[in-house]
Amino acid sequence: MRLYVAETMALTKLTSRFRRLLQRPGSIDLGPYERLTQLVAEAEESVQGLSDDELTEVVTEMRTTGGLDEDNLIEFLALAREAGKRAIGERAFDGQIVGALALLRGRIVEMATGEGKTLAGAFAAAGYAIGGRRVQVMAVNDYLAQRDAEWMGPIYALLGVTVSHIGQASTPEERRAAYQAEVCYAPVTELGFDVLRDRLVTDVADRVTVKPDVALVDEADSVLIDEARVPLVLAGATRTEELDDDVVALVRTLRAGVDYEIDGDGRTVALTDKGTDTVEKHLGDINLYEDENLDRLTQINVALHAEVLLRKDVDYLVRDGKVSLINNSRGRIAKLQRWPDGLQAAVEAKEAVPISDSGEVLDSITVQALVSSYPTLCGMTGTAVVVGEQLQEFYNVEVAVVPPNKPNIRIDEADRLYLTIEQKNVALVEHIKEIHETGRPILIGTHSVEESEQLSERLEAAEVPHVVLNAKNDAEEAAIVAEAGVPETVTVSTQMAGRGTDIRLGGRDGSHDKDRAAELGGLYVIGTGLHASQRLDDQLRGRAGRQGDPGGSLFFASLGDELVTRYSVTSGLRPSPDETGRLTDRKAIAMLEHSQRVADGANAELHRTTWSYHRLTGQQRAILLDTREKVLTEDLAAEELAERAKERYDELVEEIGEDKVKDAARKIALHHLDRKWTDHLAYLADLREGIHLRSLAGGIVHMKPIDEFNKSAIASFDPLIADAWNDAAETFKEAEITADGFDEEASGVPRPTATWTYLVNDNPFGTEADRILGRLRNAIKPGAAAESEEILPEEFEELPEELRDLDDDDLSDELPEELREADSGDDASDAKKADDKD
């Protein structure tokens, strides 16, 4: 075993050096951290004789405001390791010390599942605090924020560091107190919502947050990549987004392939010329593309998108009379999340549930913009290398890969590829039944609620006892996952890759036949299909083989899977499956791998596109917030209004005193700045959707939508602050300002009576890359040459490299059934179809 460990460590170091040579992500040299870790071990003996009070006192004496120097850092980590051993009974492994050092140097740390990221993160957070910094540990949900804060709490107490946590149910007073702690654990969404609420306060005392300093992100790849483009929204002034019943009824009569077409990638849907004629005639012979009918066109498009592309039990659930979105990366109900208002209303109309109040957007911020506001960013996850380039591109942070404390002995079998989905499912159930009969615990990862329930039905028919974990019963998650490592257990889970819960052999406490589970080979992970990212596959595999435990993994796939049908633009296959439908030829396997690379590239491009739209908005928001801050904390409002309405200002000062006038001026100015920003956001939302719709309608394809968006956005924002001051002056001249104060309601500038927060599933219609990819697919379909759209050179260059990686050999007309949207036979048959079409 020692030889195996040594070989594994040597291989890890060799891989790291090779990455550095190629300048690839994950290339941070761990050598300096490992040398410091050895010094920490040597210093450990000297702190073991300290009493608890003495340990706390020593750490307190180390406190500084300039960060810990190397000597103090070594001593601190020795004290932290001792505190962990005393407080929670866990002595940190060397790998955890290395991880803490990397976090303290602003890295994203990759540590395998079960290797103790939480403890390493607590050491780093405490280290930052001792060095005079305030840390916010960003979790993915309330449960993990509370669990980790309470679990690590005794360690922080021994080190003399204050710790707190917040969640959705926290009151403003609780939040204000929590943010004052040196280390605060919180869901990333709650941090964003508090920032948004603080941006609208009219009194400094109403703020709850503190100035951002250090962000330590748990599940960093999920937060920084998967959720980075999700806008967090603060809304107010309740209204209802009604969708005309006739539009809903009309859309349901439209026919696929006749009245509308779905892009090859399955992300967008658009009316055909015939469909446009049908809709225009039904609506009274109007021209949908005239400016006055833009609202109608928007309603038709969102209703069509909701009806055709959004799938119940895949994209959303209907529960308790409400439409609830499903978080695609975690398989859970996405609490407080919704689509942009028009699309949300369209789905609710589709499902005949009450249309929810949407309100107007008062402000918004993306997770990426929120995280980027912190001067220091670090984080930890089990899968960072795969997205290392994106982490460098979007956050300028590097990845440090920490080798496991014990070698990973999990056996990852080669993917099994089948021709059709049905053949895959038959083989999948047979394999599950075969493994279950041995008693080995099995964890099965599915992609959607619908798929998990369909698999459950097949397993019942095969008499395989099992439990199901999906968005319909996610409240039972902890109990279900805790027992997934018990022999005889079969657990079917939706998006297990994003659930972040440790699975121990033998159950939560290892008391249920742990030894037998290990003898049987450990937890066996089965994937029902590859994910759109290799990183998610790796996360699912990583549920097995924790801390040197035995384990195994196997993924099933088919050429009919959505990954292939949506993202594969290659063909040329002449598949030769065996009697079970299994494919083993190199070209078929390569096609599956290529589809995953394309999907990864498309998702990265979606991130870039979304960020490009939000970047300018963020810059404009910063300008406005600078003015707003001066109004809130200084006398800028009084100075401006005294200049613009001098007579009125002087008169009021004489009547009621300068303090009351300054207070009124501040509230009036804040109202108009906020009002102008709200109107600007609404304009930008309409602008972005309009530019997109022009693209869907076959507009000028060589025009870059982002350039047109930026031009219009800049023109709209340029006069915004000046206009706000002009409006504020007009309001000030007529406002109800008396010795009793400023009457906002009577003066026509009321604050929102209620506000609420939610997330938006941004850009649901896809990007230019999605649409170009779809047209590429259509261009290589049999008989499609006559009607495929031209892809301009400048459009093709905008695609990510993965989407341009097409070989001429791949453009053949022979595909398995699931890869074709139209029937295709031999070359003669295809030629006849083309002739008939002509």
TrEMBL record:
GO BP terms, alphabetized: intracellular protein transmembrane transport; protein import; protein targeting; protein transport by the Sec complex
Region ranges (Disordered): 801-838
Residues that coordinate or bind ATP: Q96, G114, E115, G116, K117, T118, D502
Record carries keyword Secreted: no
Domain of life: Bacteria
Comp. bias regions, Basic and acidic residues: 817-838
Catalytic activity field: ATP + H2O + cellular proteinSide 1 = ADP + phosphate + cellular proteinSide 2
PANTHER family: CHLOROPLAST PROTEIN-TRANSPORTING ATPASE, SECA INNER MEMBRANE COMPONENT OF SEC PROTEIN SECRETION SYSTEM
UniProt-recorded name of the protein: Protein translocase subunit SecA
Naturally occurring in which organism (per UniProt): Kribbella voronezhensis
Gene behind the chain: secA
